[in-house]
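Quick illustration, no need to memorize.
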Amino acid sequence: MFDIPLFSGNASLQHYVYAAPPFYHTSRPAVLSQMSDASLALVLPVVVYWGYSLFFHLLDSIDTPWLNKHRIHDSAEVKSRNLASKSSVFLAVLFQQAVQTALGYVWMDAGEEVQSCLNDLQSIERAVIYCARFVLGDAAALSFLSAYGPASVKFLYWWGIPSAQLVFAMFCIDTWQYFLHRAFHVNKFLYRHFHSWHHRLYVPYAYGALYNHPVEGFLLDSLGAAIAHWLSRMSVRQACVLFAFSTMKTIDDHCGYRLPLDPLQLLFGNNADYHDIHHQIVGIKSNFAQPFFIHWDIILGTRMTRETLELKRHRTKEKSS
């Protein structure tokens, strides 16, 4: 074994990595001059929630053949089947967002500073050297690191590790929400007193995504996101991305549309159509997974497809006729 330095010194490594940072990086003390990054992490999910919900609300007010074709339910069905008024939904969501913001105020580290992260670079450098030695052996590792070592550290620092943190946080949120969500259905007390609120919306719509009993909203959505942020060791700025993205995804899952060009519905099997099945009586004990992936439903046998739903409805009609 012998030492394989990527650079002659740590200063040159830091200079190389920061020489051409990616588009998303800023060295300013805060992303926005008007507020701290911690405040932005609290405000952004609320802005995204109502901004994205407004987009779908406008679609709901437009009557065109193309939109009607991609609506999961028609407008008359929304009005006739939902048991909660839109005003009560609006007020309940505002209350949950107030609780969510209060939790975030306590949770987020307002004093986090933008640092050079030299220690992080050194850790990544050591990890790259170790992995190269382990996989390639010392001689081949020396050749590889001489050619690609600096670029490997730079890629991992700016893209590899942040992407892995985001995906890991998404899996954390999904795991937390699947098992808690399922418990709220399996336990009759929890369903009757808490989760039944959300299922007053048999036909979901965008700004009803966070229509929950306050206790459930705190446990399922707010606390789950905070724990995912902590477990993934994200910075405050990364939290802005996680919280905004998960908020947008939750709205999209309740939007009531199968839009062919919606990137969230194209990328994720857990989408508006998938979650709509859960809101129907025949599918209420299925499709607990939310908001990103469906692996827990598949593994634990609680997945229901649209085809299975329609088949069950057909059989029910045959029995009743």
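Residues 39-106+161-320 form one domain.
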